[in-house]
UniProtKB/TrEMBL annotation:
<feature type="domain" description="PurM-like N-terminal">
    <location>
        <begin position="41"/>
        <end position="145"/>
    </location>
</feature>
<comment type="similarity">
    <text>Belongs to the HypE family.</text>
</comment>
<protein>
    <submittedName>
        <fullName>AIR synthase</fullName>
    </submittedName>
</protein>
<dbReference type="InterPro" id="IPR011854">
    <property type="entry name" value="HypE"/>
</dbReference>
<dbReference type="InterPro" id="IPR036676">
    <property type="entry name" value="PurM-like_C_sf"/>
</dbReference>
<dbReference type="InterPro" id="IPR016188">
    <property type="entry name" value="PurM-like_N"/>
</dbReference>
<feature type="domain" description="PurM-like C-terminal">
    <location>
        <begin position="166"/>
        <end position="327"/>
    </location>
</feature>
<dbReference type="InterPro" id="IPR036921">
    <property type="entry name" value="PurM-like_N_sf"/>
</dbReference>
<dbReference type="GO" id="GO:0051604">
    <property type="term" value="P:protein maturation"/>
</dbReference>
<dbReference type="Pfam" id="PF00586">
    <property type="entry name" value="AIRS"/>
</dbReference>
<dbReference type="Pfam" id="PF02769">
    <property type="entry name" value="AIRS_C"/>
</dbReference>
<dbReference type="InterPro" id="IPR010918">
    <property type="entry name" value="PurM-like_C_dom"/>
</dbReference>
Length: 363
């Protein structure tokens, strides 16, 4: 069987239109116990398993970022998946891991990756219960497989974006382009360092960017916010801002909850060193890969407590807007008084920009 010639498509996640037309109408059998299934802006599923208990499930790719090396890439991969599950309010407990490795990914390199991954699963309280590992022609970096995480918890403890309501406050942790800035600082420290110096930022700026690698996770963010309470007692929705950046995550959250969000751009944190790193890579920090930034909706009377809980853990956060009645749009207020209406996430520029930097051998 021969396949038709490939038509180039944008890198990264498929568009909401493709999801809505190709995937959403075809989800296999309907089962009444599925409380929350595949939906734009939902990071994980919720399945009722009886006796007041639910199972939370999520799946994501596993990657290797050459600039970080095997062990650091493995840690990052664990946190990318665990972050998605934690947005349900249910902590992860079990993992199914599948590797489709390129032929040149040798046993020693895989052993380094897997040892680091196992150590990180242990820190996250996750047991690996099944999986598959093999090498195949046609596979290459940076995607080397996928993992599924499962958690089990009380039915009254989970949250989904559908629980957000008009009047809820929108909170953002850390800020724009967290993963973008961390990766480019690791890939091209000399180029980024020169740009930081030209911008008048001190020697500590590069170190701060490189330290952001440890912040590419929202596990701690979720734990802190959830301590306040869920639903009417505090947090109503959590969403991991990843591809499409903070603005893309806000649009996804709006669509997922079925309401509009009104956000002020001036309230969205954008550290000066992150802005410079994004300029070096040639990407818009507001729409570039932002893993590590958590979007949290909370009842207005509990928003202050959520911010305080995050601050107690040393996690920077800001209230950036609110949920309003609507149909799933983002209203972005600019500093000059203009208000933009955004109904679809913009394509994430990170993937093409990163590929170019690697191809050109940035240092």
């Amino acid at each position: 069987m021969s396949l038709p010639p490939a038509t180039p498509s944008p890198l990264g996640k498929i568009s909401p239109e493709v999801f809505g037309s190709v995937i959403a109408p075809r989800l296999g059998a309907e089962r009444a116990e599925v409380l929350a299934g595949p939906r734009a802006g939902h990071d994980a599923a919720i399945v009722k398993i009886g006796a007041g208990r639910v199972m939370a499930v999520t799946t994501d790719p596993l990657s290797v970022i050459p600039a970080l090396g095997a062990a650091r890439s493995a840690r990052l991969a664990c946190h990318l998946i665990a972050s998605d599950l934690w947005t349900t309010g249910i902590p992860p407990a079990y993992a199914s891991v599948s590797f489709a490795l390129p032929p040149h990914f040798g046993d020693d390199l895989f052993a380094e990756y897997w040892a680091a991954m196992s150590d990180e699963w242990a820190k996250l309280g996750v047991a690996v219960v099944t999986g598959h590992t093999g090498r195949y022609d046609g596979c290459d970096l940076s995607i080397v497989g996928a993992a599924t995480l499962i958690g089990v918890g009380d039915e009254g403890r989970y949250v989904t974006p559908l629980m957000a309501s008009p009047g809820d406050r929108v909170i953002l942790t850390k800020g724009c382009a967290v993963e973008t800035a961390a990766v480019i600082a690791a890939l091209a420290p000399q180029r980024v360092g020169d740009a930081l110096a030209a911008a008048g930022l001190g020697d500590g700026a590069l170190a701060r960017l490189q330290a952001m690698e440890s912040q590419v996770s929202v596990v701690a963010d979720c734990r802190a916010a959830l301590r306040v309470g869920v639903r009417e007692r505090g947090v109503t929705a959590l969403h991991d801002a990843t591809e499409g950046g903070v603005l893309g995550g806000l649009v996804e959250l709006a669509k997922a909850c079925g309401h509009d969000l009104r956000v002020e751009r001036s309230r969205i944190p954008l550290p000066a060193e992150v802005r410079v790193a994004c300029e070096v890579l040639g990407v818009d920090p507001y729409v570039s890969l932002a893993e590590g930034a958590l979007l949290c909706c909370a009842r207005a009377e509990h928003a202050g407590a959520v911010l305080a809980a995050l601050a107690e853990e040393g996690i920077a956060a800001a209230e950036i807007g609110e949920v309003m009645k609507g149909t799933g749009k983002l209203w972005l207020a600019e500093s000059d008084g203009a208000v933009l209406t955004i109904e679809e996430p913009a394509p994430d520029p990170y993937w093409d920009a990163y590929a170019r930097a690697v191809r050109e051998g940035w240092k």
